[in-house]
């Protein structure tokens, strides 16, 4: 699946954000709960993040050009960094509003009606979050995974707020409302920094996952039975795309055409095993000792 077809998931996230913003603002105006206000603020962040995710996916779908010969797939990392930063910003805003409410307490009105409305919004977010996480992992899109994780933190925010308002309704201890909001904000900050860390690793050309590397090695090892060897295996990932380069050693007596045909076969097997994989191979003669010198990694 291409990045272009992934944009429909970002549009789904935008629609969910609009629905939940409407529900949460209604709940806030009915109750006056700072917890519900913090919940609504995070949904505004969701909307901004989902919009940026859509923008990033549209950039990532562009084919390689003269200035970006390896494509635009790293644009997805900008989206997840942006989303992580927005999550942290939302948590700071929630904390500020909660502290202000501690200083100036306010009675929560129509608590159970607010809980009902907030619960509906949480269910909407939960369904969309789980779907985005599933599709993001399936298509290896860090943008969709980040968006799904963001919506999932919103669900936990809603749960915390619902519990807080419920406790306020039963105990009449108004302080519980802002205290719960602060606890939720701390959890949100942790999630935001995790997203930023994951994106930073992507910018640094992190190697592909070990299970995927094992698949590649198994395929390359399968050709040793016909006398081929390999070395200098390097991998990296950028958004949904994986990149692999490897040196293939064949008998020096082979013709260039025969060696080329064999490399085409190996590359095809690798691309068939792992989707959205760019493979670069280099042909070398088995008999030349210099062929066994690895390249690309300075071990000094």
Which SSEs are present, and which pair or pack?
Elements: H1 3-31, H2 34-60, H3 75-103, H4 111-138, H5 142-171, H6 176-203, H7 210-221, E1 229-238, E2 241-250, H8 256-273, E3 277-285
Parallel strand pairs: 2-3
Antiparallel strand pairs: 1-2
Short description:
This protein has helices at residues 3-31, 34-60, 75-103, 111-138, 142-171, 176-203, 210-221, 256-273; strands at residues 229-238, 241-250, 277-285. With 300 residues, it is mainly alpha-helical.
Largest pleated sheet: 3 strands, mixed
Trace the largest sheet across and list its strands: 1-2-3
CATH superfamily of the largest domain: Cation efflux protein transmembrane domain
* Count of alpha and pi helical runs: 8
Uncertain residue segments: none
Mean pLDDT: 80
Distance between the termini: 41 Å
Radius of gyration of CA atoms, rounded to a whole number: 26 Å
> How many DSSP E strands?
3
Strand content: 5-15%
CATH architecture of the largest domain: Up-down Bundle
Helical amount among residues, as a percent range? 55-70%
The assigned structural class equals: mainly alpha
Element pattern in H and E? HHHHHHHEEHE
Overall, the morphology is elongated
Number of domains: 2
Return the CATH topology of the largest domain: Alpha-lytic protease prodomain-like
Q: Which CATH class of the largest domain? A: Mainly Alpha
Task: Describe the fold and architecture.
Helix content is about 65%, strand content about 10%. It is built from 8 helices and 3 strands. Strands 1-2-3 form a 3-stranded mixed β-sheet, with helices on one face. A hairpin with a 2-residue loop joins β1 (about 230-240) and β2. α1 runs antiparallel to α4 and α3 (about 75-105) runs antiparallel to α6. The mean pLDDT is about 80.
């Amino acid at each position: 699946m291409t990045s272009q077809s992934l944009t429909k998931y970002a549009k789904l996230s935008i629609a969910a954000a609009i629905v939940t913003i409407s529900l949460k603002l209604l709940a806030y105006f009915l109750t006056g709960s700072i917890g519900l206000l913090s919940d609504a603020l995070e949904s505004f962040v969701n909307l901004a993040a989902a919009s940026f995710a859509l923008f990033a996916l549209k950039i990532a779908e562009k084919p390689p050009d003269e200035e970006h010969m390896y494509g635009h797939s790293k644009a997805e990392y900008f989206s997840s960094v942006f989303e992580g930063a927005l999550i942290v910003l939302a948590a700071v805003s929630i904390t500020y509003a909660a502290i202000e409410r501690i200083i100036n307490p306010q009675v929560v009105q129509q608590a159970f009606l607010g809980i009902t409305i907030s619960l509906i919004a949480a269910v909407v977010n939960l369904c969309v979050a789980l779907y985005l996480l599933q599709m993001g992992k399936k298509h290896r899109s860090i943008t969709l995974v980040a968006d799904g994780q963001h919506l999932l933190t919103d669900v936990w925010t809603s749960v915390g707020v619902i519990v807080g308002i419920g406790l306020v309704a039963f105990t009449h201890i108004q302080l519980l409302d802002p205290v719960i909001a602060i606890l939720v904000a701390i959890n949100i900050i942790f999630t935001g920094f995790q997203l930023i860390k994951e994106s930073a690793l992507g910018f640094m050309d992190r190697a592909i996952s070990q299970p995927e590397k094992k698949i590649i090695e198994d395929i390359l090892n399968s050709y040793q039975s016909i006398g081929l060897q390999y070395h200098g295996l390097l991998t990296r990932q950028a958004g949904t795309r994986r990149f692999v380069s490897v040196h293939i050693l064949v008998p020096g007596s082979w013709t260039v055409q025969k060696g080329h045909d064999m490399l085409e076969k190996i590359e095809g097997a690798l691309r068939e095993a792992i989707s959205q994989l760019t493979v670069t191979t280099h042909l070398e003669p088995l008999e030349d000792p210099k062929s066994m010198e690895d390249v690309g990694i300075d071990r000094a």
